[in-house]
Structure prediction request, 188 residues.
Amino acid sequence: MPTAEVRRAMRAQDRRRFLPPEVAGDHRRDAPLPIGHGQTNSQPSTVADMMTLLEPFPGMRVLDVGSGSGWTSAILGELGGPGSAVYAVELVPELVERSRAALTQPWVRVHQARPGVLGLPEYGPFDRILVSAMGEALPQELVDQLAEGGVMVAPWRDVMHRVRRTSGELEVTDHGGYRFVPLRHTQF
Prediction:
């Protein structure tokens, strides 16, 4: 169940601003909406679940992998506040530009993904990592970017997982079945 803080942050960052005009009228639907290039803006209930599992906090350094439209990045920016640093990374250049135009928080920055590189290792480590695309297995490249005490929420093999790094060990828990677009390391 989403926290009151997550619900407030999601209301503060209007989904319509991050959607193409042809689907913006459907912004209240609890469904993934197409944003072009084979990508989607995740359904609000899924985003709320992921944000709650992530346990965001003010001032966090967070990586948003597969940021797509930029909506989840804006929500993370809302939850972290101006003292936070939100690093969004997206593979599709047109979505990078569109999300940069939609974002209003200067502490949220969208980066173009580099082919063959998952995440933004040069900016790590991160307190929180959110992955909004389905992988085949635990993404070790992202685990390597997770700070001590950090939390990553990522789907792989059709299940949402929460990964916490504590004393160099990983605690991985499962949180139900979900569907996402595939996690890609290279341009399609």
The beta strands are 33-36, 39-41, 61-65, 85-90, 108-112, 126-131, 146-156, 159-166, 169-177. The chain has a mean pLDDT of 92.
